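U., I forgot to send this yesterday:
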Amino acid sequence: MSERKVLNKYYPPDFDPAKIPKLKLPKDRQYVVRLMAPFNMRCKTCGEYIYKGKKFNARKETVQNELYMGLPIFRFYIKCTRCLAEITFKTDPENTDYAMEHGATRNFQAEKLIEEEEKRIQQERDDEELNNPMKVLENRTKDSKMEMEVMENLQELKDLNQRQAQVDFEGMIDKYREIEKREKERQKEEDERETKEMLERALVKRLRDSDSDSEKEEESRSRLKKSSSDKPTDILTSDKQPETEGSSASGVKKVKVESWERSVGTLGGKGSLSSLVVRKKPADSIKKAATDEANAAPTSHTDSKTNVTQNGSSSLSLLGAYSGSDSSDGE
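Result:
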């Protein structure tokens, strides 16, 4: 069984390659190739612009009876993208470029024409100087004379411009530098002033905040001090609340006092519970009351008085306390 992919062919012993018939192809045979436009061109039929680099499916053929140093020249056929007119151009190995042949005109070729004309003139001059030494001397004299004329014309133009302009360029540059320096200084001063103002605003704000915090602390301390100085039993003896307190606090305290009076009664009046609370008097008032009571007593009690004085100061103090309690009941 033979291989599926055969690389080597079998040649019989009597094989003669000269007996194989050759394929005869025409010399002007054309091939289809893919290329890009080598230059900008404009169609002569419709005026459509075809820019360099646009891709075409072109037909390529070899130009008959035309060679350049043994190199063949090729011709390309393309069609206009708008009117489908045929455009042809061929290679130019002499100038390493392409030459427009038919159907369109090449654009932007003025610079190339100028360069070609300069090359032609230079070539003709070199040929003349090569065979004629006097022509070399004449050309050198002509070139030096032309150079002197050009320098004189340039100097005249410079003098004319100086007379008409009368501009001091050095002064202008110095003035511009001075203005730029002033502008920089002004900008620097403005930046410093703005920075200073911002710092002052921040300092004032900080001082205000600290003052407000200190005021709040003082108020809280005064309230705490005031609340600590008040006694819990002041509500029993005070009839009126201080006016400095708020309306809500005074109303609450007033309600508490009223409920206390309804349940217990007032201590300042002659209520049923007023005799339960006795205010303490100083010792001097107690002694004075005791002596007044002793002087006002009748003579029938002299014996009892003598006994009392003999018992000592303890009984006198008890009598004074008793007489004090009587006087308070009478009041």
